[in-house]
UniProtKB/TrEMBL annotation:
Keywords: Membrane, Transmembrane, Transmembrane helix. The chain crosses the membrane at residues 7-27, 39-60, 72-96, 116-135, 147-165, 190-210. It comes from the Bacteria. The keyword Transmembrane helix applies. It comes from candidate division WOR-3 bacterium. The keyword Transmembrane applies. This is Uncharacterized protein.
Amino acid sequence: MKRKFPLFLVFIFGILGIIPFLIPHPVVQNTDDFLRNNLLRILAAFALVLGLGSLLKVHMDKIKRKRQNWQYSWILIISFIISSIIGLFGGVAGTGPLPTSIGSFPFDIQTLYENIIVPLGSTMFALLAFFMASASYRAFRARSFEATLLLAASFIVMLGIIPFGDRISHHLPSLAQWIMNVPNVAGQRGILFGVALGTIATALKIILGIERAWLGGGE
């Protein structure tokens, strides 16, 4: 029963998610709107609490067992508690009952987001650019015909989209645009088609109970 009940719920709600695409009746569409706009929000709230509880449990266990880099778990927990208190009692823009400024130094959630989260995200993407450059260098080395083709296409596109490419040849920008519009779009559509088929196959396996790894048993 412990495993059959979640499978039953997934089957029912999976079928309810498919039916509105096949039956345009108002009753079916209204039921679908209720499920998507009301029930999903309630489930998302429970999932948020469950996820936060799981996050704290994992990091508390890591601290308790002194696992690798356990000191960073203290930073996460302390940051979580402080930001939760500021967010719950101080409001997003500092309009709550909790004071969120000391003199001219505000520390409301919006200020924390703009001055901590946004710079950290920019730093992560800046580091990602170096990783992408390193991966591109390894992928573009002309070890095979496919890698040589990829190297030539990327070289033409990079030269074609900068002003210097037009000075080398007037045909280079149009060739780069053709590569972007025809082979690139064709490849993207092929990948998206494969992703869509894979998504449908995985969804059917989960709805029909064939794929049960999400239950935690690995069956």
